Amino acid sequence: MREVDLAALETALAEGAPVIDVRELDEYVQVRVPGVTHIPLSEFVARVEEIPAAETVYIICAVGGRSLQAADYLSGRGINAVSVAGGTDGWQQSGRPVESGA
């Protein structure tokens, strides 16, 4: 399983790579990385067809545990997926921009 750091995520976002946020709705509404797509881990298997085709799919959660699970699942389906170490919490703590609201 591969993990990437926040700098790699920042570059990926700038390049238009898909980033899937697997946190639950209340977490997502409270704070999120701009430009992510929300597919909660609790709905992930049922909504896997919504994952865009891309060279690499980035998966983020709060700190990295749930995103590792989702990335592992996608890797098992032949999708190159990486987990973002540090997650949304690390992104926010680093002073990078965030969004909130529905």
UniProtKB/TrEMBL annotation:
Superkingdom: Bacteria
InterPro entries per the UniProt record, alphabetical: GlpE_sulfurtransferase (IPR050229), Rhodanese-like_dom (IPR001763), Rhodanese-like_dom_sf (IPR036873)
Location of the Rhodanese domain: 13-100
UniProt xrefs under SMART domains: RHOD
Annotated transmembrane regions: none
Protein name: Rhodanese-like domain-containing protein
Organism this protein belongs to: Rhodococcus artemisiae
Organism lineage string: Bacteria, Bacillati, Actinomycetota, Actinomycetes, Mycobacteriales
